[in-house]
Sequence to fold (111 residues):
Amino acid sequence: MSCVFCRIVAGELPAERVFESERVLAFRDIRPAAPVHVLVVPKAHVESLFELDDRELAGELLLGAAEVARLQGLDRGFRLIANTRHDGGQEVGHIHLHVVGGRRLGPMLAR
Ligand code: DGP
Fold:
């Protein structure tokens, strides 16, 4: 299995898990951009948002992200990011939602 997030889901690679539901896992990003930076992924491999065609799973991912934000105490707000394919800066080809917060975030787009 070569996908790094599939390996985390399988327990083959360590990660600090913060939330889990039936089909979704959330763990801390290894390169945090803010005090709270958690990735929410489906346990099954889905390449990107373009390949996500399961509405229930899409809902579970989104609600999982909200639950992570609640659990992490981000009641002042947070940012949800889904980098998608090359131009979106997606580095890992397993769909993931970034839940970023814990401080006031700056302008959204970097060059
Ligand atoms: P993206 O650019 O949206 O594909 O972001 C991928 C993120 O995944 C990036 O912020 C770093 C994180 N990441 C990459 N490899 C690992 C890993 O092995 N463990 C964890 N926890 N995060 C990782």
Notes: Residues 4-101 form a domain with the HIT family, subunit A fold (CATH 3.30.428.10). The chain has one domain: 4-101. Residues 4, 13, 15, 27-31, 39, 83, 89-92 surround 2'-deoxyguanosine-5'-monophosphate (CB under 6 Å). Residues 79 and 105 are 8 Å apart (CA to CA).
